[in-house]
Dihydrolipoyl dehydrogenase (Solimonas marina), 483 residues
Amino acid sequence: MTDQYDVVVVGGGPAGYPTAIRAAQLGFKTACIDAWINKDNTPAFGGTCLNAGCIPSKALLESSELWHRMQHEIGAHGISGSDFKVDLDKMQARKTAVSRQLTGGIKQLFAANKVTGLEGFGKLLGDGKVEFTPHSGDKQVLTAKHIVIATGSSPVNLKITPFDDETIVDSWGALDFTEVPKTLGIIGAGVIGVELGSVWSRLGSKTVILEAMPSFLPMVDAAISKEALRHFTKQGLDIRLGAKVAGAKVKGGKGGKTVEVEYEMGGETKKETFDKLIVAVGRRPNTDGLNAKEIGVAFDERGFVKVDANYKTNVPGVYAVGDVIGGAMLAHKAIEEGVALAEQLHGEHTQVNYDAVPSVIYTMPEVAWTGLSEEQAKAKGFDVKVGTAPFAANGRAKAMEQPVGTIKIIADKKTDRVLGVHMVGPYVSELLAEAVLGLEFAATVEDYALTMHGHPSLAETFHEAVLSVDGRAIHAVNKVKKS
């Protein structure tokens, strides 16, 4: 059996399903194939993000943060109690329910936009053909003028610390613990490692994060990452920088397994034993079984699909978007690429601005940034001017009992244009959109300074940071003299 489509998308995660929806909105007959199977053997669209990453991790972060605030903050509000406890089973059930609501919503969106959703495996055959193998049923061949690879990525499995899905786990396994580990080791102090560390540390795990790099969050402005490290350490995360893991051994039997990790730090070989070990050292593109190489699709040395500025591969009619092409492995970046591609297939001139990609770490305080750090701006040759403002001076943050963190603005002295915004503080993920929009419009410090911000709001700290660039801050200490 052969079915004819205008567009066939292989992959139903944040890159794939928006591509399919937008293509269908533009009049293309569209199918979206996705192979995801949850641990209860139920298929689902949404990829890692909705099923095993962004959404479930944020659900657990929210739950664990409430528990932390109950223990450490509510007393300051005049609220007390003694019968608080954590029901991890209920917490996990809520997490799963949130994910399932959203993944089910994709099917509804497909139906509303007349996208054919196909649960199973897609294999490129060449000549505009894709073989579809359902999870149960007979294979069929789809033909399409445009075939989009949007198969996403998976956690890197280190040979020195191979996953056993019980004691040594990946980021998905780390979201499904049925008990709070007494001791928890995490390899990698990036976004995933710090978020997962926050969840389980708040719930009671003695958590050690081993990071091979000598610096913490090197992609973030140095002043902001330094402050974030101080807050996380104060909360109980034991983050060890320059710790290069040599290997891990699982010891013990049923009901008593632990993992011994050997690492080098400061010129010394050290060992540490944990109840659980999370490996969070990055992600690799999902291309196994896709048959892309076999039909001639070019890959780079790291295994990512090569594309041009319009997401075309070297094979006519075959495109790729999202994690599988590399760059920032972020769901929102993948969404924008998918939408841009669909519109380009329709003849529109759209593009993604990779200089204004938002990034967030959903700890508390949160870390968020877009554009250049001060260090990156100077390395690119900009003569920079910077401004900062602390949340300690913000009335809303004080009322929330969360007056911690700083916002930093990096700007070009010559043009006054804002080059980057880096923040650590309460709910800075929600303040980041203002910064991204400013970069999109090439906003200047003056543009932001002349924009009224509501009072009392966390956004006032953003405004104060902007004003401080030119020594004009009203509620923060100015470090720059007005000329």
